Amino acid sequence: MHRVKIIKEFLKVKEITIKISGLHTEISTDSGTIKAVDDVGFHIEKGKVLGLIGESGSGKTMTAMSILRLVPPPGRITRGNIIFEGRDLLNLTKKEMESIRGNRIGMIFQEPMTALNPVIRIGEQIGETIAFHNNLSRSDIKQRVFELLRQVGFEDPEKRYIQYPHQLSGGQRQRVLIAIAISCNPSLLIADEPTTALDVATESQILYLLRQLISGQGMSMLFITHNLNIMRRFGDYVCIMYAGRILEVGSVEDFFSEPLHPYSRGLLDSIFAFKGDETRLKAIPGFVPKLSDLPEGCKFHPRCMYVMPICKKNEPEAKKIGEDRWVRCYLYQN
Ligand code: SF4
Question: Which CATH superfamily is domain 14-104+184-252 in?
């Protein structure tokens, strides 16, 4: 059976919203080709949150841009499958993709001030997305905007409708962006560090709101973050990225109780105290390598305390080691 057909059958059985496999995105530079996303694969079930976690430059945002087919030139997707609602997004025309972005896939960005147009009223900005994807009258769109403003926690939607972004706080602006993202009832939300610019109290409110929306509407979510603490509270699955690759995938319970990959363990040890085990790493030595200057073999080997001769020569494959559990490391290859 053809590969895409097999994936489609799998999605029906498991109620999977999106499945990505073998995704490669490259960037051409004067000094050569950089593999920003290298053989990335994961899936997100209906109503679940998958946290894509990694340090700056690990490929998280480029993965999201690849899903949305918004990779800026000179970057380009070279291989892979992105099966969403029965279609491979990589085979769609530009027009078909426009009908999915903002409609079936909602997007929430990091900095609410720059994501909103400062000279257009809040209500009109939300209404624009609805009008683009739906054939509704002006008054129906306005009513839908009021409904959305209420849904994201504004008790006075008529007042908010006519306000400009600078008249709202950071948390309120992020609520407006969430209203735009869910305005067409998407089945998938992609949120790129949506709470980074917010204080801790507002962050909790926004996470609570997102969780309510996901449970209430059965949406799935790809949540990009470098913050493991947030994912422990908010996520269902964790996907660890490093140097453009996925190193480990697992449920939040499995990952936080028993991280497998040495990089995952280092990340957790640098944040959480592990009682009674002083042999664990407390900080990861060295630095994240530049994508233009990656080491041979396992890309984490210069920083790994378990490095073996084979690690320096060949890169390990991702290996399935349990239900929804994958790891890319020679310690788990037998
Ligand atoms: Fe460490 Fe080798 Fe595993 Fe890489 S493959 S994380 S170097 S043990």
Answer: P-loop containing nucleotide triphosphate hydrolases (3.40.50.300)
